[in-house]
Amino acid sequence: MSEKRNSREVEIDRLAKKLAKLVEIFRRGGKANDFKWWNSNSPRSIFYPLYGYQDGQPLFEEVVQGVLKLNPEMLSEYEVERKLVYDFLQTQAISWTEAEHLSNQSLVSEAKNHLNKLIEFEAWQDVDIPIANLWLGGGLVKLGKVTFMEVAKEELEQWEKRALWSGRAPDFRVVARVRAPGDLQKALSYAETTVNQVLDVLRAFCFPFGRYSDTWRIGILGDTISSTSTPMRIDNRNFPTRIGASLAQIELSKHILSKLEQPQLELINKLILKAESSRSKMERKLFDGIHWLAEAAKPDTNRAKFAKISIALEALIGGEPRDEYLQVRGITAMLAERAAFIVGTNKDDRLAVDKDIRIHYSKRSSVMHGTAGDVPLNEIDEFGELVRRIAIALLEKLDKLGDKISSVDKLEKWARSQRYTLAE
Asked: To 10 degrees, the CA torsion angle through 58, 42, 110, 92?
């Protein structure tokens, strides 16, 4: 038996004894009055008297967390709690007569069998998440682990019959399907996280930042804002409405993915599908930058959008190397130089990128401290497009250079080497 398997068996035995002890505590506590819930969020005990709850709660939490650690990919806390309470504790503590109760090693063995079923549980299911204000204009579109597909009219009627949203909900014609692992709650959480990551990529690389951004209200149904109209009242009598820009009809392939070249799409797919544990430090930074660029493409105030783009820039190529050189140069100069070498294809291009980064980033401080006033939409667009260009170029450089720029220190050394490399 391997050392890992042996330690796993030891842990299951330990948890089984805890679970058996819980049963004994509950039997002492008297008849249960309610098994609907019993966890750290509930102030009441399911047993009389109260000491059953007080003594048992820490044990219950320990068993739940122990089971989750042994099968983290498939089990949610909600499902583990429910299975332990209804399928084991309720049965062993109150469902049988006292004469039928298991005890001692028999009870521990039954607890172990129950825990093994949870720990060995495995399931996969297709989760469909409705996406608001998006059209496909064609067949299926796959990006990473997400497949976008149109909802047939008959299916849509079933969704509307079973859903809780009102008739004023955003338009919905597309679902994002994810093959998700785990129980119901785990699968839903996994699917939502996966879809949000793909939507972040689309927003970061393809959505507008300033002008027209309010017309792109695409997102998971319930997370997106349905209207750009604002009702107002004047002198406590009139109710005029400020009409914003009408929502654009956005097609995934035609208006979004067309902004990326096929090699870029392939690199994005490759990065999304790469296991998180095998991503380099710079690849993780790239994901952080993508997230903040995506946030900047969502509806918000102009200053907030500009601030988020600044955060995206720092997430992408910021970070101090482990030397004192940066203190002499300054952060703005460091960002400008790294951006210039990552994006620029020739001397003039690099000089232009360096200059633009200095102009936009120099405004960051006044925006952050509230001294800049409002930020014009064209400046948001210009800054956003520049940082987007850096994100795409960094994606391409990571694929081409690999380990040479896999961390902040290596990126700094590479940028420094570029400064002193003569043209061929």
From this structure: 120
CA distances from 98 to 28, 32, 77, 92, 101 (A): 12, 14, 31, 10, 5
The pLDDT tens digits of the residues spanning 154-204 come to: 888 777 766 666 555 677 889 999 999 999 999 999 999 999 999 999 999
Q: Is the pLDDT of residue 4 over 80?
A: no
Q: Is the pLDDT of residue 5 over 80?
A: no
Which range of residues forms the domain containing residue 100?
A: 3-119
Are 300 and 234 contained in the same domain? no
Looking at the fold, whether 414 and 305 belong to one and the same domain comes out as: yes
| CA dist., res. 305 & res. 302, Å (int) | 5
Mean local confidence (pLDDT), 332-341:
90
Whether residues 150 and 129 share a domain: the answer is yes
pLDDT at 34 over 50: no
220 and 318 both lie in a single domain: no
What is the per-residue burial (b if ≥16 Cβ within 10 Å, else e) of 300-317?
A: eebbebbbbbbbbbbbbb
Angstrom distance (rounded) from CA 422 to CA 117: 65
Name every residue whose Cβ is closer than 8 Å to that of residue 166 and which is 6 or more positions away in sequence. Answer: none
Of 119, 148, 176, the domain-final residue:
119
318 Cβ contact list (under 8 Å, min separation 6): 331, 334, 335
